[in-house]
Amino acid sequence: MTDSLRPGGDGSVYGAVHLGYLAVQSERLADWERFGALAIGLHADRLDSDTLRFRLDDRACRFLIRRGPAEDVTALGWHIDDHETFDRILARVSDRGVPIEEGSAEETALRGVERLWRFPGPKGIATEIFTTPVTTAEPLRMLGSGWVTGEAGMGHVAIVSREPESMHAYYRTLFDSRLSDFIDENISGLRMKIRFLRVNERHHSIAVANIRGIKIDPIRTRVQHVNIQAASLEDMLAAYGRVTDLGFRMAWSVGQHTNDRELSFYCVTPSGFELEVGWNPVVITPELDAAWTATTYQGISIWGHHTASETPLDKLTQLRTAASRLRTPEITVPALTGSVAL
Length: 342
What we know:
Elements: E1 17-26, H1 29-40, E2 43-48, E3 51-55, E4 63-67, E5 72-80, H2 83-94, E6 101-102, H3 105-111, E7 117-119, E8 126-130, E9 156-160, H4 164-175, E10 178-187, E11 190-198, E12 206-211, E13 225-229, H5 233-245, E14 250-257, E15 263-268, E16 274-279, H6 286-290, E17 295-298, E18 301-304, H7 312-325
Parallel strand pairs: 1-4, 5-8, 9-12, 10-17, 13-16
Antiparallel strand pairs: 1-5, 2-3, 3-4, 6-7, 7-8, 9-13, 10-11, 11-12, 14-15, 14-18, 15-16
């Protein structure tokens, strides 16, 4: 990491935080193994009948799939560069009275990390932070040339929220996230506002979307999609072909985004949230970061990203989900959502 991004005297941890792994709970491990290994082309390790891991690089775990009923992402694991920064983040949480628990030896081993701590996150997704990741020299068994991780982390997560300001404030308070830009989009007649937050050189590690003027959430899962970045355009397109050929559901066709210029497609995971496989997004280097100004873009895509398989039943299910959520407050973490300028 360059010195200009390293946490300094101002106490900022920006640049020392990277999305490290995702934990998913699912009863469909056989489908996940087929989806991840044969369609997307990831390295799969089946540890036992209840546990599956995927690798993207030399780290032991990037996706942890464990048997359970949620069919959703249950935790986001954030790699913190050093113990000093790790302790600074823990202090931000504990000083505000937020409950923290240390990961057990079994949990730490399953995630392939050292020094694991966990505390509440928005929408009930646990936030987990760790220091040193476990790496392995075992050769990767993947379909393709590889995935882009490194300083940018493993990708990004997009979440639909009825409390977007609270979620934005959470990541700013915790990780000193910076606003990259906004997108205004009209989806099925609803006006959507999306905030894109970065914690390192990746254009965004968290995207937060909300329906303008209406506090509804039409998505069943806690996350709308997870993104990983292919090393080459050929890898991305080959994965698109395998997803289609193997009969997995495609959500959005290949297209290019307006803000980060990433080329990508979206498919539906066995748990119901989407996986975006992308290529070649904008990287916000230290030079760009110093002069970056948040911009509002009209529309998600320059071209492509056409709806591939939405049916009237899908729309009805989304309306029922939104209606049921109206009666239940969205989970926030008020102690970590101080006021923030948007």
